[in-house]
Amino acid sequence: MKFSETTLADAWLVDLEPIADNRGFFARSWCQREAAEHGIDVDWVQCNVSFNAQRGTLRGMHWQAPDSEAKLVRVTRGAILDVIVDIRPGSPTFKSHFSAELTDTNRRALFVPEGFAHGFVTLADDTEVFYQMSAYFVPAQARGFRYDDPEIGIHWPDGPRIVSDRDAALPGFAS
């Protein structure tokens, strides 16, 4: 596994290091020891799959509180623009965002630390996203802010076309 720093404190891009032969390749998608070498100490307790039928589907910007969760996000089919926002007061990158294209062909993952909001927009039809989570989902702890809040200034390619009623009704970041 290859860990690459992002512009946000404690967030990492994680690339596979495939060992290939005539059958295809083999690669580790997660190694606790290698993660710890980069300051990541996380136990995954839940895995989720998000299927999105149409290009332009937006999910986000979400987090959970007070039981904050780290995530490892990978696309198993299709493509997304994955976006994270540092919402940790006192962090040197507070209110800053980072985005990366995750696809089934680049096989890249994004490590999202605790204290970050997360969202994505699909760049292809029939996109499937796989999440590893460090905390159990608790509906009463679900939080979010509007994906198009000008205070954060995220640029979404082609403008999201499909947004849930819940996400469209989220307040701005300042709330």
Your description of this structure?
This protein is mainly β and 175 residues long. The chain has a single domain, classed as Jelly Rolls, CATH 2.60.120.10. It has 2 helices and 14 strands. It has a 6-stranded antiparallel sheet with strand order 1-2-10-7-12-5, with no helix packed on it. Strands 6, 8, 9, 11, 13 and 14 form a 6-stranded mixed sheet that branches. A two-stranded antiparallel sheet has the order 3-4. The longest helix has 5 residues. The N and C termini lie far apart (38 Å). The relative contact order is 0.25.
First-last Cα distance: 38 Å
What's the CATH class, please? Answer: Mainly Beta
| Order of H and E elements | EEEEHEEEEEEEEEEH
CATH superfamily: Jelly Rolls
Helical content (DSSP H or I, runs of 4+): under 10%
Largest sheet: 6 strands, antiparallel
- Number of helices in the DSSP assignment: 2
Second CATH tier, the architecture:
Sandwich
Major β-sheet strand ordering? 1-2-10-7-12-5
Give the key terms.
5% helix, six-stranded mixed β-sheet, six-stranded antiparallel β-sheet, 175 residues, Jelly Rolls, mainly beta
